[in-house]
Please model this.
Amino acid sequence: MLKRLILLAVVTVFFTFHIAMGSAWAIELSSELRTVTLNDKGETTVLSLEDVTKGKELFNFACAQCHAGGKTKTDPNVSLGPDSLAGATPRRDNIAGLVDYMQHPTTYDGEVGIAELHPSIESADIYPRMRNLKDEDLKVIAGHILLQPKILGKMWGGGKVYN
Model:
């Protein structure tokens, strides 16, 4: 019984600390830092603190197993870094481009659909983690991807150099 109480106390302290630190981190992000590109027209949007938190959680849930730190396990030459996203066809360095990719993924040159190889809404029957994601969820995941280079610099998507 005593072991269970001690375990319960440790878990409670851990989660309280985790929640407090997560909230403090999000509050420190200025609106300027949270401003990301919305579409190919160059329009921007400011992610809310809730969007930042939810985007991180959903990215970790649906994407991080293959894209931890913005890298791509299956192809280290293509990352989620700004240069790689901007070089794709169509461009994926904005929320609309990333959402479109998460709905209907294509090869880097945009020529061939790869929904059977990459988790997406289109292939949600194969990739169960994508089944319950709505467009709003995809937008906050995209926001997370675009925000990370501003926070982590070259470490986001930096490949083998920053392991």
In short: The two ends are 43 Å apart (CA to CA). Strands lie at 35-37, 44-46.
